[in-house]
What we know:
By secondary structure, the chain is mainly α. Helix 3 packs across helix 4. The chain has helices spanning about 1-5, 35-45, 55-60, 70-80, 80-85, 100-105, 105-115, 130-150, 160-165, 180-185; strands at about 15, 20-25, 25-30, 65. Strands 1-2-3-4 form a four-stranded mixed beta sheet. The longest helix is centred in the C-terminal third of the chain and has 21 residues, at about 130-150. One of its GO terms (molecular function) is nucleic acid binding. It comes from Sesamum latifolium.
Amino acid sequence: MKTKVQEGKNDQFVIQNDGMLMNGKRMCVPNVEELRTEIMHEAHYAPYAMHPGSTKMYRDLRPYYWWPTMKKDVAEFVAKCLTCQQVKAEHQAPAVSDRDPRFTSHFWGSLHKALGTKLHFSTAFHPQTDGQSERTIQTLEDMMRACVIEFRGNWDDHLPLIEFAYNNSFHSSIGMAPYEALYEGNVEVQSVGILRD
């Protein structure tokens, strides 16, 4: 790849002064399995990561690294994680609103009628059908279980790490990490120096 870039045959990539091959702002990771595995290991097992799923992990790595099979490699890496296999559920309930009085009021009923939309409610006293909030709770519970398995201790000792990991990982519902949405920037915690060492 470097030869093609040096010969001007590939303008998608750039070689920096230090010899690092870049794809835009992302470092191109050589086809060295141990190096790619170390990057994925750091992004998955580090205390600030808390075992993200493959989509979150890929979205967290994508701004920093590039290699042709990265998405597939991340999915395979996460699928092999024994901790994730123990704590993550296979299927989730669909998203439905709960029966909070704010949503069951006359105002909301009138608004939905005027807009021609329907608001579906979860079954009373059955919060598992409220998918959005339950999905968030499930994610946090998975992170707590992973803490107990990984760190051999009480999950409550690791609540700050769980909060940090949750708020700094990609959320598909908003298209970014909550921290990024609130502060218009990222907390850079990835070990981008791995390739330079």
